[in-house]
Amino acid sequence: MAQWIDGAALAKQIEAEVAAEVQKVQAAGVNPGLAVVLVGEHPASQVYTRGKVKTCQSLGMYSERIEMPESATTDEVLFAVDSLNQRSDIHGILVQVPLPPQVVARDVLQAILPDKDVDGFHPVNVGRLAAGNAVLKPCTPAGIMEIFKRHRIPVRGQRAVVIGRSDIVGKPVSLLLLHEDATVTICHSKTRELPSVAREADILIAAIGRPALVDDTYVKDGAVVIDVGVNRLESLDKIRELFGEGSQRLADHARKGYTLVGDVHPRVHEKASYMTPVPGGVGPLTVAMLMANTVRAAAAQARISVFA
Ligand code: NAP
C-alpha cells in the first residue's frame, strides 16, 4: 500500500519559506511583483489565474491580473507583454495557456524577458535548464523534484521512466531527474510495449492527459508513482469502475458534473510505495514553485541572494 504524498501540505511548507524570502527582499527595498495575463474566458484558466494572484498576495507580494478579450490578436498580446517587460515593479510575467487559436503562443512566450519568465518556458531558460544552471525552472517539474527532496526519496542511480514528452512537464522533468543522477527513459505515444518499459521504473512519472491509463500492469512493486495528469471525468460508469459504488467521487460528480482524475489508475495505490493523489498532489506544488520563482526573479534582478 502506497503512502499518499500530500501536495497541499508540502506547498504550504514551501510557501512559508517563500514568504520569509519575500521579507528579506523587501528589507532590501524590492517588492516582488507578478503579472498574470489571461486571454479569453477559458473556465479552468480563470480559476488558475485567480488562485495564482491570490496566493502571491497572501505571501506579501504584489500581483495583478491582466485580462484580455477572447478576440485579442497576437500583436495586442505582444504589446501587453512588452509593457510588462518595461515595468520595474513587475519581476515575473506569466501568460496563461492555452491561448485562443489566433494568438501565436510561441511568439508570445518568446517575447517575455527571460529574467521575468517565471514559467521557465523561454528558449533561453530552456537552454539554461538543459545546461544545468537554470534559475527559473518550469514550475510543475520543479515541484515534482521538491517531493523527492522533502520525502527523502532517493533519485541518484534510480531508474526513472517519464511518460509524456511535453515542453511543460515531460522534457523538463526528465532533465531535472538526469541532473540528479537518475537513469531516465522518456516515453510517448509511439513508445512500443509501454507497460513493460514503465515496469522497469523505480520512479514512474505520468504526464499524459489520459484518465487512469497507467494501471497496475505498468508499475513494479514498491515504485514511486507521480501522477501529473489532471483530467475531467464525466462518465458515471467510468467513475464507478475506477472508484467503486459509494465513493465520494460520485458525490463530486453530482455536484459539479465531473470529477478530476489523474493519469494513474487508483488500483496502483496497492502496488506503489509512494503515490501522489489527484487532486491535491502535484497541482498545489506547481503554484508554490511559481511563488518561489517570482521571489527568485525579483531577487536576481536586484542582485540579492535568496534561498541561500
Ligand atoms: P501534452 O502536451 O498533451 O503531452 C502529453 C504527452 O503524453 C505527449 O508527449 C504524448 O505523446 C503523450 N501521450 C499521449 N497519449 C499517450 C499514450 N496513450 N501513451 C503514451 N504516451 C502518450 O500534455 P502536458 O501539458 O504534458 O500535460 C499532461 C497532463 O498533465 C495533462 O493532464 C495536464 O492537464 C496535466 N498537467 C498538470 C499540471 C499540474 O500542475 N498538476 C501541470 C501541467 C500539466 P506524443 O508526444 O507522442 O504526442
Description of the structure:
The chain is of the alpha/beta class and 308 residues long. It has two domains: 86 residues, Leucine Dehydrogenase, chain A, domain 1 (Rossmann fold); 145 residues, NAD(P)-binding Rossmann-like Domain (Rossmann fold). Strand 2, helix 2 and strand 3 form a beta-alpha-beta unit. The longest helix has 21 residues. The mean pLDDT is 97. Bound molecules: NADP nicotinamide-adenine-dinucleotide phosphate. The site of NADP nicotinamide-adenine-dinucleotide phosphate has 26 residues, from helix 11.
N-to-C series of helices and strands: EHEHEHEHHHEHEHEEEHHEEH
Q: Strand fraction band?
A: 5-15%
- CATH uppermost class of the largest domain: Alpha Beta
Helix content: 40-55%
CATH hierarchy: architecture of the largest domain:
3-Layer(aba) Sandwich
* Count of all domains: 2
The name of the CATH superfamily of the largest domain reads: NAD(P)-binding Rossmann-like Domain
* Strand tally: 11
State the major sheet: 6 strands, parallel
Regions with pLDDT < 50 over 5+ consecutive residues?
none
> What is the end-to-end distance?
37 Å
Mean pLDDT equals 97
Number of helices: 11
Overall spatial form: globular
Q: What is the radius of gyration computed over CA atoms, rounded to a whole number of angstroms?
A: 20 Å
Strand order of the largest sheet: 1-11-8-7-5-6
Counting helices, strands and paired strands, the structural category is alpha/beta
